[in-house]
Amino acid sequence: MKKVSLLVLFICSVLFASAQTRSFNYYSQETLDAIGTTPEQQSKIRELKKNTDSAVRAVKNDASISDADKKAKYREIYAEGSAAYRKILTEEQNAKLKALFIKFKEENK
């Protein structure tokens, strides 16, 4: 009985782990270091993330907005954040970021 329970637990953990999807974290220290951001850029990016997260929370908590309108607002917020993020980086850093993202996608197919 113990062997069966352990086997079931193992199978469930494998299924759970394989069902987990990884996402690319543009704001992680690992990413910022990999693309060679300066401390000043990192500070601006942290502030951008804070502002983006606040805007998303405000939309999420606004009961007067329909779910469809919330999705549209989220897309708008993230598009603005993405554009602002790219403006903080140099051309070279943007190229490194794109390459890093492509590599991540290929490794996580």
Output the keywords.
mainly alpha; about 110 residues; 5 helices; single chain; about 80% helix; globular; disordered N terminus; about 0% strand
If you average the pLDDT, what whole number results?
Answer: 86
Please provide the ordered H/E string of secondary-structure elements: HHHHH
**Separation of termini?**
37 Å
Query: Beta-sheet strand percentage?
Result: under 5%
What number of structural domains do the residues give? 1
Number of helical segments with 4 or more residues: 5
Quantity of strands, as a count: 0
Going by helix content, strand content and strand pairing, the class is: mainly alpha
Largest β-sheet summary = none
Low-pLDDT segments: 2-19
Q: Radius of gyration over alpha carbons?
A: 19 Å
The coarse overall form would be: globular
Measured as a percent range, the helix fraction is over 70%
Describe the structure.
- With 109 residues, this protein is an all-alpha fold.
- Helix content is 78%, strand content 0%.
- It has helices spanning 2-19, 29-34, 39-60, 67-88, 91-107.
- The longest helix is centred in the middle third of the chain and has 22 residues, at 39-60.
Short recap of the structure:
The chain has 109 residues and is mainly alpha-helical.
Write the layout of secondary structure elements.
Blueprint: H1 2-19, H2 29-34, H3 39-60, H4 67-88, H5 91-107
Helix pairs in contact: 3-4
